[in-house]
């Protein structure tokens, strides 16, 4: 539908709707000058970094990079698709959505609408059967024995699929077309040899699975006895993709206005049981292990997830798989924990025994990701021998290298050094891990990464695309600097285009301690640089000196007004989000060192450029001699005293 809505209508719609009205209905805002600010609804924060510019009709969060207009806000905050967000704005504006000319798959649109309607009917039917069917006592007694009340059965829409092959078929299949739709919804199975249909779910407790809008998209059925499979889920359909959906997520958001963590459990009854005892922030995967898509979705909503597993061998294996999935996804400011329950217990049974307070105490004592990671790898490792320490690091470092660049990754690298007694450089040599990047405590390597260009790719549009970053040198390629040869290190795993170098380090310090810009001078040496982070540093320093006391959110708003600055906003956000914050006690010294290294680098470049010219004028020769003397003086100042 998005491609068939005329762009002219979208532009007119955005002109009719006030972004401030859309955001203010969902986020508490305070006027700050010509803008409005508040706590970002897309990530956990204590001080406001979320800004709405009513004049230019867009919002931006400097903390997490979320930004856009009314459409993108509805899509991100209300979890709407693009056409759904357009439809919502059109309702608010009181206008009809026109359709542009072009092929329209009306049949597919109608099929999906029919499926949603039939799934809702099926949910109501199963709930009715739990109240009225002649064999309902079997299901009711099962739920009572599991400690479930009628109130929470109703909250989660729990129902009952009675015995029999065609109960749902008889109830909902009004004609052949409806039978086909029920099959496409995953509710009926077609017996091909006889072309007959029968119910997929029979004699099971039924749990409706809802999307973020509360629509029923599938079902999970739990047997009442010991039959197999214990849980049966709907198949993949047009409305249901199990690798992306989580049971209980809709309910957790609906009944908790301020979610700050989510528990990932294995069963539907665990989700409902915990909610009944006051722990209404559990979700369950749907017949699959936790995927990266699951985690990325959850960590956008909350700063912490807790995996909850049985304490047996199967639970430990499941936890190890979850750890492997989490490592590349976790970022600074987010946390993953691992909770192991006593043998033979599940969350539902344990919370009924201990109560809410005791169970939440277990949650607070659960193992952080880093502790679980090292505990798992240390088991069976002989840390008293060099070979054992080498094998330990050989297992640990590749996993850590998958992590996003940041403080947590650096601290885990340092932990390996602490456990093995070896420096990171030694570990790299022992394990031949060329992709490992040096930690902030290692000496600066005698090479640097090529900088990335940050094109203006519509970052504030309603459907932003991911920027395509380019490196000046390919990873692993040899290059020369002066009369020495070096091998370019590969970029850090995780896809970040931001590399740690003097310029990005200086940018990070100025973002967090903008008052230090007064000590940087004019940095005119960087004004003509064609390197992305150096150009960013020059512009940021200039802006901070001209606008003392400005907040990052206002900076982003102001830079949107200038075409030459707009491409730098994404890079600025990348550095702010990924580069570790330097401790305030040594920030001034680190900033000074970074600026000195930048000046030395430009000095080296100018010398090399002059030397590479076949013929030098008298002025060029004089300039070259001055630069060489300046270079020698700089190195003399840096040389240690004997």
Short synopsis of the structure:
The protein has 642 residues and is α+β, with helices and mostly antiparallel strands. It has 25 helices and 18 strands.
List the helices and strands and how they pair.
Elements: H1 7-16, H2 19-24, E1 30-32, E2 35-38, E3 50-53, E4 58-61, E5 67-68, H3 70-77, H4 82-93, H5 106-132, H6 136-145, H7 150-155, E6 159-161, H8 167-172, H9 176-184, E7 188-191, E8 196-199, E9 204-210, E10 216-223, E11 231-233, H10 249-255, E12 262-265, H11 268-276, E13 282-284, H12 292-301, E14 304-310, H13 313-326, E15 335-341, H14 347-354, H15 356-364, E16 367-368, H16 369-378, H17 386-401, H18 407-420, H19 424-431, E17 478-481, E18 484-487, H20 502-512, H21 532-546, H22 552-559, H23 566-578, H24 587-611, H25 618-638
Parallel strand pairs: 12-13, 12-14, 14-15
Antiparallel strand pairs: 1-2, 2-3, 3-4, 4-5, 6-9, 7-8, 9-10, 10-11, 15-16, 17-18
Helix pairs in contact: 1-4, 3-4, 5-6, 5-9, 11-14, 14-15, 17-18, 20-21, 20-24, 24-25
CATH class bucket of the largest domain:
Mainly Alpha
Q: Estimate the helix proportion, in percent.
A: 40-55%
Q: What is the chains' assembly state?
A: single chain
The CATH H-level homologous superfamily of the largest domain: DNAb Helicase, Chain A
Observed structural traits:
single chain; 642 residues; alpha+beta; DNA Primase, Chain A; DNA primase DNAg catalytic core, N-terminal domain; Dna Topoisomerase Vi A Subunit, Chain: A, domain 2; 5 domains; 5-stranded antiparallel sheet; 5-stranded mixed sheet
């Amino acid at each position: 539908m998005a491609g068939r809505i005329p762009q002219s209508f979208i532009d007119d719609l955005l002109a009719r709707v006030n972004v401030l009205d859309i955001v203010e209905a969902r986020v508490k805002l305070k006027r700050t000058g010509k803008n409005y600010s508040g706590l970002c609804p897309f990530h956990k924060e204590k001080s406001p970094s979320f800004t709405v510019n009513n004049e230019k009709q867009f919002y931006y969060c400097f903390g997490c990079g979320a930004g856009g207009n009314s459409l993108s806000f509805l899509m991100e905050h209300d979890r709407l698709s693009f056409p759904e967000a357009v439809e919502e704005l059109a309702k608010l504006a009181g206008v009809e959505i026109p359709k542009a000319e072009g092929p329209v798959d009306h049949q597919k649109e109608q099929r999906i609408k029919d499926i949603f309607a039939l799934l809702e009917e099926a949910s109501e039917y199963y709930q009715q059967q739990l109240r009225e069917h002649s064999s309902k006592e079997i299901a009711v007694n099962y739920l009572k024995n599991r400690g479930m009340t009628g109130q929470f059965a109703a909250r989660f829409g729990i129902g009952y699929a009675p015995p029999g092959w065609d109960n749902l078929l008889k109830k909902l299949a009004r004609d052949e077309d409806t039978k086909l739709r029920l099959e496409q919804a995953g509710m009926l199975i077609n017996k091909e040899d006889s072309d007959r249909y029968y119910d997929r779910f029979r004699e099971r407790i039924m749990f409706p699975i809802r999307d973020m809008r509360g629509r029923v998209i599938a079902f999970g059925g739990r047997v009442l006895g010991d039959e197999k499979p214990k849980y049966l889920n709907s198949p993949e359909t047009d409305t249901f993709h199990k690798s992306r959906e989580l049971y209980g997520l809709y309910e957790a958001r609906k009944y908790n206005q301020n979610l700050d963590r989510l528990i990932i459990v294995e069963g539907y009854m665990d989700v409902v049981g915990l909610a009944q005892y006051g722990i209404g922030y559990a979700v369950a995967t749907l017949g699959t292990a936790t995927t990266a898509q699951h985690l990325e979705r959850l960590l956008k909503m909350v700063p912490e997830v807790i995996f909850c597993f049985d304490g047996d061998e199967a639970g430990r294996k499941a936890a190890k798989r979850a750890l492997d999935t989490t490592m590349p996804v976790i970022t600074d400011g987010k946390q993953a924990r691992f909770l192991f329950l006593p043998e033979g217990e599940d969350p539902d049974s344990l919370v009924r025994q201990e109560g809410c307070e005791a169970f939440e105490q277990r949650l607070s004592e659960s193992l952080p990701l880093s502790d679980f990671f090292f505990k798992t790898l240390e088991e069976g490792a002989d840390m008293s021998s060099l070979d054992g320490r080498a094998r330990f690091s050989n297992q640990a470092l590749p996993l850590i290298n998958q992590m996003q660049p940041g403080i947590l990754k650096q601290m885990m690298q340092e932990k390996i050094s602490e456990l093995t007694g070896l420096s990171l450089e030694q570990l790299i040599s022992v394990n031949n891990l060329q992709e490992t990047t040096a930690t902030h405590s290692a000496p600066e390597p005698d090479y640097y990464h090529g900088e990335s260009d940050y094109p203006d790719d519509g970052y504030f549009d309603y459907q932003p695309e991911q920027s395509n970053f380019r490196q000046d040198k390919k990873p692993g390629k040899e290059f020369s600097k002066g009369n020495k040869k070096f091998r370019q290190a590969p970029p850090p795993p995780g896809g970040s285009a931001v590399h740690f170098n003097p310029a990005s380090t200086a940018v990070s310090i100025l973002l967090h301690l903008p008052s230090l810009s007064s000590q940087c001078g004019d940095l005119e040496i960087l004004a003509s640089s064609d390197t992305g982070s150096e150009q960013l540093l020059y512009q940021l320093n200039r802006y901070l000196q001209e606008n003392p006391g400005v907040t990052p959110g206002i900076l982003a708003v102001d830079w949107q007004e200038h075409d030459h600055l707009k491409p730098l906003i994404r890079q600025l956000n990348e550095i702010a989000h990924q580069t570790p914050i330097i401790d305030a006690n040594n920030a001034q010294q680190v900033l000074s060192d970074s600026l000195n290294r930048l000046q030395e680098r430009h000095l080296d470049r100018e010398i090399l450029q002059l030397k590479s010219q076949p013929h030098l004028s008298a002025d060029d020769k004089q300039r070259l001699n001055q630069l060489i003397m300046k270079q020698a003086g700089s190195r003399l100042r840096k040389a240690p005293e004997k």
